Every structure is written in C-alpha cells, then in structure tokens.
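Next up, sample data:
>
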Amino acid sequence: MAQNFFSRFPKIAYNIDGEGTFLNLTNIVNNVNVNSLYANESTYYTFYEIEDGDRPDTISYRLYDTPSYHWTLFIINNDLRNGLGDAWPLSNQQFERMLETEYDKYSAITFLPASDANNGTIISGLFNLSDLSGKYLPYLRVTNEGGTEKAKILKYDNDTLQLVVYDIRRVSDDSLLSNVTPFVKSNLFYRWIWENPFDEESDEYIECEALREEFVKRHIAIYSEIDPSAIVDPSTIGGTTADEIAAGVLAVESGYVFSKQFVAAPTNVRWESYRNAASVYYVENSDGERISRSGYDIITNPDIISPKYISNFEREEIINDSKRKIRVIRPDRILDFVNEYFNVLNG
C-alpha cells in the first residue's frame, strides 16, 4: 500500500530554541536527482495523454489504483517541477472562461501602415506605434470617422498591425454599444482623441495634460521625419510672452496630431472578438510548410487577398494541447521506482 509522500522523508533533529531543546522534524528540503534513478531508462516510463478534468491524483488512481503516487508526475516531468501553474492543461470549462476573460471583451482593428503624411486627398497619419506607452492609454481613445463612437485602447500590436480596443461607446451620451460591428468593420478612417477625466483645478488634471503634451511631442517627432509641415515655427505663433508662444505651438501641434486619420485595412482583417483575430500570419511554401510573416508583409502584399493566419483561439488551443502529453512511470514498475527513490532520499 502506498504511504504518504512526506512520511518517508528523513528526519532531522532541530534545535528549536537554541538552548538544546530538539524536535525531530521532517527534512522536506532533501531531494533526489531523478536522472540517477530508473526513470531515466525508457523501460521504466510511458506517456499519458491528460484528458479533460484529469488531476494528478485521479491519474495516479487510474494508473496505480491509488491517488498516493501523484507526486511521481511532478518528479519525472520537468515542466511540473514547480507545481501545476501554467504547466497543466486547462479543462474545457477553464479554457472557455480564459478566452472570455482574455479575449472576448476586446476587438481588433488592423491598420494600413501609412508610408507618407498625405495619402491621396486624405490626410493620413503614420501608424507605427510599437512604443505606444501604457501611461497614455487610460486617456487615449480612438474614434470613428464621424466621431460618433469611441473606444478605449488595450494595446497596439506592431507585429500584426492591430489596435486592440474595448469599451466601445457613443460619444453623445457615453452609452455602451451592444453591437460593436459598425465601429470595427464599417469605418474606414479613425482618429485619436484625448480625454482628461479630472477636475481642472486638481493636480491630476495638470499631470494628465502634461502626459497629453508628451504624447503630442512624441508623435510630432515621428511625423516630422516625412512631413516638414509638422514642424511649427514659433515665429508664426501670436503671443507676447514665451509661455503664450509655447502654448500656441502646442495647440497647433495638437491639432496636427489629433486631426490625423488612420486608414483601416480590409474588413477581413478586423475582428469583433479578439479571440478570432490573427495571432500570427503565415504563407505556405511548395511543400506545404507554414512560414510565419509579419502583419506588414501580409497587409502590404497586393497579391495576398485572403491572408492565412493562426487565430488567438487556435494559438491558445495549440499551447493548451501541448501540455497534455506527460511522462508517467509504468504501472508494473511503480513500486521499484518508489522504493529506489526513497532509498536514495534517505541514503
């Protein structure tokens, strides 16, 4: 019969008060290099495919008719050495809850990477925000062409050219949209807006305005590399003091940045639910091998009409399924392994 795991650990006399009062305690810090045991021989183990709802104790019971050998799974599988954590596959129910939490409240809009400041007759901004800092996101919003709806921003993914948005609302009454499709798929152009939610007399309001100024300056620096008109000549700004001129320059720069319209990519690369959005794009070679490509390579290639990609859902499914195959001690060798393990542990 299997014994409790720690009951077979060696004991150690511990001077509990420093004055000679000793207690016999289980020395749980002892460990065994499993590579020195039979488990390193292929004749001692086999593989097990974790099923939905399986736990280490239920697997032990299924294989060895007792839950007490569940610890062997953690001993012989390196990924489980630090506990279940992210190493154990999610059950179907847990997996669905994870998708709902991590993806379903978000949408993804892919934008064309504009190469110049003027795109035909439409003034188009650069969408190269790989360094978009999280400190701006609480106040930065993206609006549709007409400015009737707005959304908060989770992040910008420069690999896929996706702006991930959530909490899509009407600008007029701040009501939440129950159907996000028009905002995500029916609009061709989008703009930034900045929302400062604090009272104008508060320190928080001043700090938020300083962040807005920093955001503007960063993007003026980006735009000015290809569009000289982004650079404001202070001598053209009315004002009699340095502060008035600086405020005028900032106003002109802000108008330039926040008037930029970003061009969305085709609707087949925009998703109401982020779980269905492209996690990675790929092309297939003549042998059918998948070769990953950046969003830029795919979106700017006029020969690719229907991009091939692995969605976030598919990626998470692949990751979760990759955790299902674990190594286990063969049932006919489990007693030999356990005895050898504790012999070495107590040796």
User: Anything to note?
Assistant: The mean pLDDT is 84.
